[in-house]
Amino acid sequence: MKRIDDKGWSPYLAGALAGIVMILSVWIAGKYFGASTTFVRSAGMIEKIFSAECVEKMDYFIKKVPKFEWQWMFVFGIFMGSLISSTTSRSFKCKAVPDMWEDRFGPGKMKRAGVAVIGGMVAMFGARLAGG
Amino acid sequence: MKELVYGLITGIMFGFLLQKARVIRYDKQLGALRFIDMTIVKFMLSSVFVGMIGVYILTDMGLAKLSVKSTILGGVIPGGIIFGLGWALLGYCPGTSAGAVGEGRWDGIWGILGMLAGAAVYAEAFPFLKKTALTWGDFGKITLPQVLGVNHWIIIFIFIIGGSALFYWFEKKGL
C-alpha cells in the first residue's frame, strides 16, 4: 500500500475499498450511504429542546423524525474514523483556516467562519431540495 | 440497537478511508471545483464503480434491494445549483465536514452549524416547496437501464469504460 507521507493513499485504492465497505453495508445492514438527512434530524432534535409541540406538527419532521438512527451513527463514525486515521499517521493538525483559503483570503478566522456558516446553510438547503 | 452499531462501524471504516485519501480536505474539494486536483473525483468514481458492480450482483441474486429516489426535476436542478454554490463557499460537504473536524480541521464545525441552520430553514420551507417546485417534472423512481430499456450490465460497462478514459486523461494531465 502506498503511504507517501502527506499524499496519503492512492484515491483509486481508497475509493475502491470504500466501494467494498458500501457493498457490505448494503448486504449486511441494507443501508446505503448518506449524510444530509442526519442534519435534518439533528436540527429537529435541537428545535425540540425549545418547542417540542411545534416540531411534532411540522411536515418535514413528521417525514424525517428527529431521532438517532443508522445514518446519524454513520456520520458520527466518519468523524471517529477520520480521527483514528489522522492521529495514528501524524496527519492530524489543528487548523482553523485551510491553506488554499489563506493563500487567497488571508489568515482571518472570522472571515472563514462567516463564509463557512453561510456556505453550510446554502449547501444543506440545496442538498435537501435535490433530495440528497 | 444493532442498526446503530452497524452505522457506527460503517462510518468509522468510511471515515478512515476518506482521511487516508485526503479527500476530506478543503484544498482537495476546492481543487476539484477549480479543475486543478481531481483527487476527490478519482475517489468518488472508484467507489461508485466498485459499489455498482457489487450492489447489482447482490440485487441480481436477490440479496439486496436498490434504494431509488424519485427524479423530480423541480427539486434536482435548482437543488443541485444551490448545493454547488454552498459547497464551494464551505469547501466541505455534509459527510466530509464531520471527517474534517476529525482530522483537526475545525473550521468544519462552522460548516456543521451552518448546515444545521440550513436544514431547519428547509424544514420551514418544505410545506411550500412540496406544493410547488417538488411537483414540477416528477418522473418517479426511475433508473437509466429502465428508461433506456436495456440490461443494467450494459450501462455499468459503459460507465466503467467512460470512467477509465477519464482517469487516463486525469493522469496524463497530472490533475
Q: What portion of the residues of chain B fall into strands of 2 or more residues?
A: under 5%
Provide the helix percentage of chain A. Answer: 55-70%
- Estimate nothing, just give the exact number of structural domains of chain A: 3
Task: State the secondary-structure class of chain A.
Answer: mainly alpha
Q: Total number of β-strand segments of chain B?
A: 0
> What string, H for helix and E for strand, traces the elements of chain B in order?
HHHHHHHH
Mean pLDDT across all residues of chain B, rounded? Answer: 97
Q: In the residues of chain B, how many domains can be counted?
A: 1
State the end-to-end distance of chain A: 33 Å
Shape of chain A: globular
Which spans of chain B have pLDDT < 50 for at least 5 consecutive residues? none
Number of helices of chain A: 7
Average pLDDT taken over every residue of chain A: 94
How much of the polypeptide of chain A forms β-strand, as a percent range?
Answer: under 5%
Biggest β-sheet description of chain B: none
Shape of chain B: globular
**Most extensive contact:** A-B, 93 and 103 residues
Tally of DSSP helical segments of chain B: 8
Quick rundown:
The complex is a heterodimer of chains A (132) and B (175). In chain A, 69% of the residues lie in helices and 0% in strands.
Explain what the structure shows.
The complex is a heterodimer of chains A (132) and B (175). Chain A has 132 residues and is mostly helical. Chain A has three domains: 33 residues, no CATH class; 59 residues, no CATH class; 38 residues. The longest helix of chain A is centred in the last third of the chain and has 21 residues. The two termini of chain A are 33 Å apart. The N terminus of chain A is likely disordered. With 175 residues, chain B is mostly helical. Chains A and B meet through helix 1, helix 2, helix 4, helix 5 and helix 6 of A and helix 1, helix 2, helix 3, helix 4 and helix 5 of B.
